[in-house]
Amino acid sequence: MEEVVQKKRMLSGIKPSGDLTLGSYLGAIKNWAERADEYDCYYFMADLHAITVRQNPADLRRRTLEQLAQYIACGLDPEKNTLFIQSHVHQHAELGWALQCYSMFGELSRMTQFKDKSAKNADNINGGLFSYPSLMAADILLYQPDLVPVGEDQKQHVELCHTIARRFNGVYGDVFKIPEPFVPKVGARIMSLTNPLAKMSKSENEDTGRVLVMDPPEVIMKQFKRAITDSDTTNCVRYDKENKPGVANLMTIYSACTGKTYDQIEQEFDGLGYGAFKPKVGEAVVETLRPIREETLRIMKDKAYLESVYRDGAQKASYVAEKTLRKVYKKLGFVAK
Fold first, then answer.
1. All domains of the chain in start order, with CATH
2. Could you state, in chain order, the average pLDDT of each consecutive group of 10 residues for the chain (337 residues)?
3. Other CB atoms closer than 10 Å to residue 121's CB: what's the count?
4. Active site residue: 202, 244, 278, 280, which one?
5. Does the annotation count 278 as an active-site position?
């Protein structure tokens, strides 16, 4: 009899606090879709995390559903991936509170993103903004995953998750699996088109530096035509992240969309300069995002289908999450229901 090999579990989520960008797709979702056959994958709309910053309720609802539709359009087949909305699985909030009690004040205060977000939201430095790494740890540990695909900017949170899990395990025994961060080598960090030293952000106030997955072709082309390159008078398309970050960012995007290596890109545009290069990058992005945009619009019209996906996903996620939460509650000494 052939032995059934247990797939390793992978989990990740994105906040529906803004519209998905090209960076979200190339840096995360594209890589998720390619791993569905190899791993047991759980992906969620992190709406609980979104409310650390004030949200317009109607926009949050729309973005959550649109993000789910985009996940599917990007290749995350609901038959192969568990797709769900975070707030539909109550165990996230419950374990989040328990893990807050095992997160040290000093650890949370050292989080780089807390410092950054506090500076941007000086009039709303709330408790959730401070303690959300504990909820993020709960998001991860509930599912006992082997791998967590994260961007470079989230590695600090995964390290804190490890610290919390080891602290809990040290007191109560082997409760949580310690997951490994999984950082894709290519496309892991797409930068802003107007500030190549900053990550392309879905919550950017200025829209000049970002490309949204749902942007029409003419908007995408306009964004790339005004993208920052550098002040190098040679006008040379060459990968040099330190001295030519704008050009390096465009090459990263072009490589991710076409599959070409940096050497091939340099040869393709040898002697042609930025005037020829930027529109070609824009065209590659247009063709990459076109089928995703069209499929997202089609899925959004099928409300019954979307609802069936997120309900089925939440049911499956809750089943897995509840097993972990029950184990934690028993260790803590809570009376069983």
1. 8-183+302-332 (3.40.50.620), 207-297 (1.10.240.10)
2. 70 81 86 84 93 90 93 94 97 97 90 74 79 93 88 77 95 93 65 88 67 94 89 79 88 92 92 90 96 96 96 97 97 94
3. 14
4. 202
5. no
